[in-house]
Hints:
This is DUF3509 domain-containing protein. Pfam families: DUF3509. It comes from Pseudomonas capeferrum. The chain has helices spanning 2-11, 47-51, 53-70, 76-86; strands spanning 16-19, 28-33, 39-45. The chain is of the alpha+beta class. It has one domain. It has a three-stranded antiparallel beta sheet. The chain is globular and about 40 Å long. The chain starts with a helix and ends in a 7-residue tail after the last helix.
Amino acid sequence: MERICRLLNEALTPYQTHLGIADANGNRxxxxxxxxxxxxxxxTVSLRQLQEQRLLIDVVDGLHRDLQIAEGRLQPCVxxxxxxxxxxxxxxx
Length: 93
């Protein structure tokens, strides 16, 4: 898990991350701290999300998006609009 923490810290610079102790199901509390050591985000992540590269990338992408929202650089309504644009449009006969 130390390696995963280093990767998360590198991916989320200037933020720092901490992975809590695994619960009975193997889930861990992921906490993201700002430069003043204040908690910016907290998420529960599964062991599978931390072990599978594709899922870990998804976690980091989600954290980047949530950090942009927390910083006020991205509004949730913009995300919804972007997601709607990416959905395939139905064709008319």
